[in-house]
Specification:
Abortive infection bacteriophage resistance protein (AbiF), mainly alpha, Abi_system_AbiD/AbiF-like
Length: 373
Amino acid sequence: MENELFFGKINPKKIKHKRSIELEVQSESQKSAMIFLEIIREKFPVKIENQKGNVKNAVSIDKMVDHLKEKVVLQKGEEERFYALIREKMYYKVSYFVKLLYNVNGNPITFTDLENIFYFDDFLRTSLSRLLPSIEQFVKSSLNNCLLEKYDNDSLIYLNEKLYKHNTESNKSKLNDVLSVCASEISEVSNSNDAVKHHIINHGGNIPLWILFDTITFGKFNMLVTCMDRKVRRYWIDYMKLNCQYSDDFEMSAKSLPSHLQTVQILRNSASHLSRIYGKVFTYNPGIRPSDKYWNKISIESFNKPDPSVQIHSLFSGLISAKYFYQCMSNTEVNKWNKFIEKLDNKMTEIKYLNSNGYMGFPENWKAMLLIV
């Protein structure tokens, strides 16, 4: 006798915090059954293949300081500040910045040198946390306005497949998945967002485009953009550039647009989640083509052109992506960006042992490439 195939549905909301769930299922022959599902969750210690070793033992803060004092020279009165830095910022992070001090001449590294590089990273992180949300607001607003203008103010245009790549089953499946994820987020925030709740109750659950974009995360917005047809992205790029006074440097194509958005997203998330910015190799991959002017403009004395596999994951390439969007924004926003670049320049000239090329991907002419003029 062949096994019958049973069908059932699970609401993801109902299994979020449960260890097990009972599910009623039914076969094509209308035969019903109850099945019991145990939800497997990750637990500590985390398991992967080929593990070895045991937990690393903690050491006292005195031993931590003693270890770092072998590499950092403390002047009179600095030991208390050294202890405070470790207590407030964590030993692991402080010790990593000791490694990042680019000391090619073998000169003694002082506590002031360490403190300067540490708070330079703080400056990068806080500046990006302040600057990058403006890009999210701008791209969501500009795409909303572009689509409403192009498609006769159709507030549900995001549900029309003509907006998206839909020539293969894979494309259709991906779009359905992304729309489902967006719908789930709308549903989740409905109790705390009055605008969303209003449209669910009073407009049959139909969420207009502007409410959708304002509600979903930057990551989900970018997922939706990735599904869009290239001609739609091209409309959007043209729309962004309409009021752009600084478009000579704008090398973003319909193909590369999603990668630049994801680059800004990853850079913003890194800054928001207290991740190290200085010396970080980023996971983004902005679509900067070998033929783009970007590579020809970079001036680095040690070699003619940087290694793309390294340069593309640097802080500098992330800032280039951010600049592309900022140069399409208002003069007020452009001035904010340029003030950041000027302040960055001032700080970099003050700090010893800064490896701006190796740890940040900055060429010699970085300022000229990042300023919007």
